[in-house]
Amino acid sequence: MGSIRDSMLRTDDKVTPLKQKWDEFGTFFAKAIAGICVLVWIVNIGHFRDPAHGGILLERMAFKSTTNRSQLHVVREVEAIGGHKLIH
Predict the structure, then answer these.
(1) Are residues 37 and 60 in the same domain?
(2) How many separate domains does the chain show?
(3) Which of 3, 4, 44, 75 maximizes the CB count within 10 A of its CB?
(4) In 10 A of CB 64, how many CB atoms?
């Protein structure tokens, strides 16, 4: 058991040209995707409060899309699990 661990500790992580190119591509790709997401968000920021697009998103997710519970019922459930402590 000890010899396997020792041999694993002795291995060197060599940075090959292929690994270096993949790392560069991964970094570029992550930055490109993040930039696209920010751009889409900025372009659509005017629609966040537009009633035609659902109004305030959080309110819509929490209350308008629930068919089985009213807004008061949801508030009581959150308070029952200690949601009121998050505000203070």
Answers:
(1) no
(2) 2
(3) 75
(4) 12
Q: Per residue of the chain (88 residues), what is the pLDDT tens digit?
A: 567 777 777 766 788 899 999 999 999 999 999 999 999 988 887 776 666 655 555 555 655 556 676 777 777 877 787 765 655 4
Which among 62, 85, 58, 57 has a CA at the least distance from the CA of 75?
62
Q: Among 11, 15, 35, which Cα is nearest to 24's?
A: 15
Q: Torsions phi, psi of 11, nearest 5? A: -75, 140
Residue that terminates a domain, selected from 6, 23, 43: 43
Amino acid (1-letter code) at residue 43? V
Q: Does 7 fall in a domain?
A: no
pTM: 0.45
